[in-house]
């Protein structure tokens, strides 16, 4: 039969079983059913508050879950796999599994992003780079508008804007474009975002074909998470794998 894992909704209230009584009902029916059936091999929940330190909800959902697991195990139910910890919970528990757990679901940390800012950068290495290239550098003057709908008003004559071949169609969030990119080891401000291009204000050190870094170990995804751009997963999942060229190292 098909292996399934039972899900306890906990404080996230996203799906499936609301309490231990509902889980017991399924387990009892499963034990009494002698027909061909699914195999209940695991049980799990998801912590929605593991990255929140100013409220008690993580301890509440953690305690509720552990009480449920302890009760079921004391009633002689067995599960091959018990898992609940996301990256935030796993690091919050000093990279230790919770009691009776067999696995952790370390997701965002595998991509090199810290689930909360109290973790030192050295503990989680940024695992991907997102980059484009300068197509050309344009000389614009005070009063010029660049980008759609007056996106950027030029303040000084002979301002240099690099046109870069990556945009929101490739998955760069508009909120990310309010910050900087790295060119030749130096940070420059992004001034306007378009579907397949962006404008970056640069200086004489930037030229056509220079590499433009949006994310790497020196300009991390989680840096912009903590600046309010969007969750780590929001920035990552927006990436357009059809338009971006991929290189695996």
Automatic annotation (TrEMBL):
Pfam families hit by this protein: Ala_racemase_C, Ala_racemase_N
Cellular component terms (Gene Ontology): cytosol
Keywords, in A-Z order: Isomerase, Pyridoxal phosphate
Cofactor(s) it depends on: pyridoxal 5'-phosphate
Chain ranges of the Alanine racemase C-terminal domain: 127-249
Isomerase among keywords: yes
Gene3D superfamilies tied to this protein: Alanine racemase, Lyase, Ornithine Decarboxylase, Chain A, domain 1
Binding site for substrate: 14, 195
Top-level lineage group: Bacteria
Tagged with keyword Isomerase: yes
GO BP terms, alphabetized: D-alanine biosynthetic process; peptidoglycan biosynthetic process
Single GO MF annotation: alanine racemase activity
Name this polypeptide is given: Alanine racemase
Provenance organism: Staphylococcus capitis
């Amino acid at each position: 039969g098909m292996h399934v894992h039972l899900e306890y909704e906990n404080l996230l209230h996203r799906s499936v079983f609301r309490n231990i009584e509902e889980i017991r009902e399924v387990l009892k029916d499963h034990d009494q059913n002698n027909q061909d059936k699914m195999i209940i091999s695991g049980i799990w929940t998801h912590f929605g508050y593991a990255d929140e330190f100013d409220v008690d909800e993580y301890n509440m959902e953690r305690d509720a879950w552990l009480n449920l697991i302890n009760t079921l195990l004391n009633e002689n139910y067995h599960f091959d796999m018990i898992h609940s910890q996301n990256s935030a919970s796993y690091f919050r528990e000093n990279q230790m599994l919770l009691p009776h757990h067999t696995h952790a679901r370390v997701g965002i940390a595998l991509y090199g992003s810290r689930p909360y800012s109290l973790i030192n950068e050295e503990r989680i290495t940024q695992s991907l780079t997102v980059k484009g290239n300068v197509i050309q550098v344009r000389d614009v003057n005070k009063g010029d508008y660049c980008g759609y709908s007056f996106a950027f008003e030029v303040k000084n004559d002979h301002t240099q804007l690099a046109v870069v071949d990556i945009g929101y169609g490739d998955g760069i969030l508009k909120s990310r474009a309010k910050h900087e990119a790295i060119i030749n080891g130096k940070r420059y401000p992004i001034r306007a975002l378009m579907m397949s291009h962006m404008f970056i204000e640069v200086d004489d050190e930037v030229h056509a074909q220079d590499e433009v870094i949006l994310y790497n170990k020196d300009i991390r995804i989680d840096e912009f998470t903590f600046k309010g751009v969007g969750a780590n997963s929001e920035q990552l999942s927006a990436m357009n794998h059809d338009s971006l060229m991929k290189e695996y190292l």
